[in-house]
Amino acid sequence: MLTAIIPKLPMRNKTTTKSYYIDQLGFTQIGDYGDYLLLKKDNIEIHFFEFKNLNPKENYGQVYIRTHAIESLYQSLLDKKVSIHPNAPLQNKPWGQKEFALLDPDNNLLTFGESIT
């Protein structure tokens, strides 16, 4: 039986990744193994592996994160001056989701969505 999925995304600099996810997005660190970092917020985990030579313009890492409070999450990020993806502000999508997206410092796309159906 499948019980969870935990994305693994590349990071060039662990300090930068931790600062973004912890200070701006509200994650907490649950593990640090040198070149492997584990972060958690609420019921989700994201793991990061070191990739010092990553070219962010060639990184297509993506995660879709479901939420039950998208409007308050969106507003809290705006209040913290977190950059929202310029092509993905909070909006209703034809597939029945209200979504917005962010790009982390390594160009990993984080899309947040809540069902509107």
What features would you describe in this structure?
The chain has 117 residues and is of the alpha/beta class. It has a 4-stranded mixed sheet, covered by helices on one side. A 4-stranded mixed sheet has the order 5-8-7-6, with no helix packed on it. The radius of gyration is 14 Å and the shape is globular. A hairpin with a 4-residue loop joins strand 6 (91-92) and strand 7 (97-103). The protein contains 2 helices and 8 strands.
What is the gyration radius calculated from CA atoms? 14 Å
Structural class: alpha/beta
End-to-end Cα distance, whole Å, is: 28 Å
The count of strands amounts to 8
Order of helix and strand elements from N to C terminus: EHEEEEHEEE
Beta-strand percent range:
35-45%
What is the count of DSSP helices, taking H or I runs of 4+ residues?
2
| Order of strands across the main sheet | 1-4-3-2
Biggest β-sheet strands, sense, barrel: 4 strands, mixed
Helix content: 10-25%
Rounded average pLDDT: 97
The parts where pLDDT drops under 50 for at least 5 residues are none
Cα shape: globular
